[in-house]
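Consider the tokenized backbone below.
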């Protein structure tokens, strides 16, 4: 089959990104501009600042992605764009740019769900990966176990009932004074700590693969506050390692249980938390011991990027999922509703 070239645009949070991919598997360019540094002092993403930065970055980022790919804009077959879920101001900037480009080039517009993008980030580096498989999608806003029945066909079989895993990382890091975002710094700090120093709660539900991370977050905050009030020195590395071990154990156990129950022998990681070294090691070990296949994207493809949107857009386009010019941004949007 002829090569299908997709442009992917992502602007749902604090990364403005555009990328060009061939047949959903080969990345020709992946340009990412982030406003993260501007949000650090506030301890989280400030939507208004993110929107302004998206406006500033979007056209140069798209231009660079097309130039770096070494293609003429007319070679693009479809334009994929994240239309939800996410911060509505940011989504609108990406969406308007995508619509303008689709209209001016006379190319189809493909609305992509942010989480299907995260899942598709596994395709370029893992040519052997084909559905069906089970994906753990863990980011700052979501923690889902998704059964990917086919390209573009998703069934959520487990989800968090309160905080997302990335959110728990971010909140614990803030309490420990480690800054924002919490995931990467806890990951690094935990390397020097004892994962069994503290026995933090691992919430599990009977007959369900759902998660809950608000209990462990509160337990960490209480533990740290107690030590502070007693004037004790906080063993930050031990707290990080114990917190991380508890969170990753639950993520890993539930995902492999769900995979087995759904009859899939392949498990993948996706989303910002998928960059976590402890989570990756646990999944690798569990998959090997159960003789299952395990795939994960390299860290740059775990956090938000345009390449994952370009790859997801390819499969959506093949399935005939073309959006009208009335496509709107959706701050909340279920993966099962696309
Ligand atoms: O997917 P993403 O870039 O944005 C959202 O869609 O939310 O994920 C961001 C989240 C943040 O909560 C961040 O702390 C977390 O991913 N994260 C990590 C790591 N790198 C990023 N969490 C744990 N370990 C990491 N190495
Ligand atoms: Zn994301």
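A designed sequence for it:
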């Amino acid at each position: 089959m002829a090569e299908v070239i997709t442009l992917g645009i992502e602007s749902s949070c604090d990364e403005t990104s555009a990328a060009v991919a061939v047949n959903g598997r080969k990345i020709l360019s992946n340009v990412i501009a982030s406003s993260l540094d501007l949000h650090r002092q506030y301890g989280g993403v400030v939507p208004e600042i993110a929107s302004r930065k998206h406006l500033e970055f979007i056209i140069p980022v798209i231009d660079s992605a097309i130039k770096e790919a070494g293609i003429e804009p007319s070679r693009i077959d479809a334009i994929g764009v994240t239309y939800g879920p996410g911060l509505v101001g940011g989504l609108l900037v990406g969406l308007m740019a995508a619509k303008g480009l689709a209209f001016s080039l006379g190319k189809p517009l493909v609305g992509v769900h942010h989480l299907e993008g995260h899942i598709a980030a596994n395709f370029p580096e893992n040519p052997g990966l084909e559905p069906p498989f089970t994906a753990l999608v863990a980011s700052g806003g979501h923690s889902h176990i998704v059964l990917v029945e086919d390209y573009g066909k998703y069934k959520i079989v487990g989800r968090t009932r309160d905080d997302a895993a990335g959110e728990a990382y971010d909140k614990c890091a803030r309490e420990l004074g480690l800054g924002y975002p919490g995931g990467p710094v806890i990951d690094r700090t935990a390397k020097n700590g004892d994962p069994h120093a503290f026995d933090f709660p691992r919430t599990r539900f009977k007959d369900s693969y759902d998660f809950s991370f608000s209990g462990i977050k509160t337990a960490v905050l209480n533990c740290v506050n107690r030590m502070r009030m007693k004037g004790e020195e906080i063993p930050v590395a031990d707290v990080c390692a114990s917190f991380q071990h508890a969170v990753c154990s639950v993520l890993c156990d539930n995902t492999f249980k769900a995979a087995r129950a759904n009859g899939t022998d392949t498990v993948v990681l996706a989303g910002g938390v998928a960059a976590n070294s402890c989570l990756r090691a646990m999944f690798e070990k569990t998959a090997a011991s159960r003789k299952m296949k395990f795939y994960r994207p390299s860290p740059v493809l775990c956090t938000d990027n345009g390449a994952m949107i370009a790859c997801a857009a390819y499969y959506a386009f093949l399935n005939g999922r073309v959006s009208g010019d009335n496509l709107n941004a959706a701050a909340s949007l279920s993966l099962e509703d696309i």
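Residues 114, 118, 139, 271-272, 304 surround zinc ion (ligand 2) (CB under 6 Å).
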